[in-house]
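Case study 2.
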Amino acid sequence: MSRAVSTTGVLIKRATLNSNAALTSSAIGTPGVFTSGAAHNLVIGSRVTISGHEGAVPAVAGDYIVETVPTATTFTLSRDGDPVDLTAGGTGGTFEGHGALTTIAEIVTLTPPGKSRNKIPTTTHNDGAESSVLGILMQRDPVVRVNWLGDEPTHQQIEADINANARAYWRIDMPSGIKMGGPGRVQRFEPVDAPTDAAQQLEFAIAWAGLVLFEYPAAV
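Prediction:
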């Protein structure tokens, strides 16, 4: 018997990105505590990407999840569900992370992201069968349709994003508990044809501007 979950209740959420923010230091601890040069605007569950941080043991670089936010300038991290413990602190570097997520209102349909790799033929004349290698990772852009409300702040923000070519953090939450998120820009903002006696709708698309990570719920 299938354990598939209905897609009723799928959500798409947006958050402002804090890009290239200064990371001042990290301190020994279980978990280690990271200090930013200014207010980080992170929340528990934020995805954070760290680069250029030196001296920490174990080394700290790449993508993490914010576990706690003790103050406006400190935070702790986890990776793959395990806290990031430090036996030596580090200094410097930058981080990119997002603040609180806001749900886009009045979703009607959503085409979720996906991943694929281009197939590059390597077959030669003497080969007895087709052969190939796979190219770079391609990420399908999500497309969303909403009931378009002129006084809805989340809909106004979508237009503001495309006007400014703004890079934000976007996440799709499936009812099954699967989450798909990453940095992206609004690539398309188009009112849908407006037949009489039907809801006014808008369709927009997100072009990914970085790696999309899939998060999975714990096994039942």
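Residues 121 and 132 are 4 Å apart (CA to CA).
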